[in-house]
Amino acid sequence: MQLTMMGEYAIRAMMHLSSRPFGTMVPISEVSALWDIPESFLRKISAQLAKARLITTQRGVGGGLSLARPAEEITLLDVMEAIEGPLSLNKCLINPRVCSRTGWCAVHLLWSEGQEKLKGVLRSRSLAELALLSGDRTVEPLQ
Question: CB burial class (10 A; 0-12, 13-18, 19+) of residue 30?
């Protein structure tokens, strides 16, 4: 399993938004330029993040992106599942009926344990905590 570029870009964008005071509307062009995210791709990602109610969007002058709730309340798991869908290391973890061996398979138990640990790690830190770990690198808006 590998994080897609869409997931990577979503994390970058959310980290940038979390570096701003809550409620600050950040232009898409700023996030795109500072975090090396193609603007057209960022618009697509923004729609998914807004649908998951992690951000709000506003068009026009003074518009852009803003966190929908404080960074302390958003985890990396929230962001990943908004973009990638429910986290699953194997098909049998999505739907036990996919495999007839689910009830007794040792590998199924291993996948299940690994998935829960991965989810726990992604759930364990908020965007606010990650921003602090990153050195709270707030950036000046583009002029």
Answer: middle
